[in-house]
Amino acid sequence: MAMRSLARKVRANEEGSVSVLIIGLFLITVSLLFVITDVATISVAKQSLVHATESAALRAVQNLDRASYYEGKSGVAVPIDCASARMRVIEELGIWMESSTGMRRPEIDSVGLTGFYCLDNVVELRTTAHAVLPFRLPQSSMKDFEIHASAGAKSDRALQ
Question: Which Pfam family would be a valid example here (predicted)?
């Protein structure tokens, strides 16, 4: 009989422990969902910046250096006008930033050209963008992030 009353006392002392565990697991699950959403946001924003950088690089190689091309002074078949190409890259990135969210991610708030290399028929770009995280954990000081992308293109045609 004494054993049964001791067992009842022990059970009575542990009545609220399951709800504490459930609340703890719920908080951990919600925190993990926030982190997973933030990581996915970073990945999708990076992919969006890569597409914009590739688009700008392709736009840059479409700028023919007419003087070199028609005089035949260049050692390549299709020389690029580097000054015009740089302007087109900046223009393309500006158009992309002003576009609707169908082309760019809404969490990206600024984009910049950090590197531009142009020689003969080759263009290489490096871009950077700042984006805001959709969720911020109370313990974390990270509210935005910086992403980088690079792309290159070459106007190529065999000399004849």
Answer: Tad
pLDDT tens digit string along 67-114?
Answer: 777 777 666 677 888 888 889 889 888 888 887 766 777 788 888 889
Measure Cα distances from 121 to 56, 58, 108 in Å: 15, 12, 31
pTM for the structure as a whole: 0.76
SS3 129: strand
Number of domains in the chain: 1
Distance CA 53, CA 34 (A): 29
Amino acid at position 93, single letter: L
Domain containing 71 equals 2-154
Residue 159 maps to a domain: no
Kindly state whether residue 43 falls inside one of the protein's structural domains.
yes
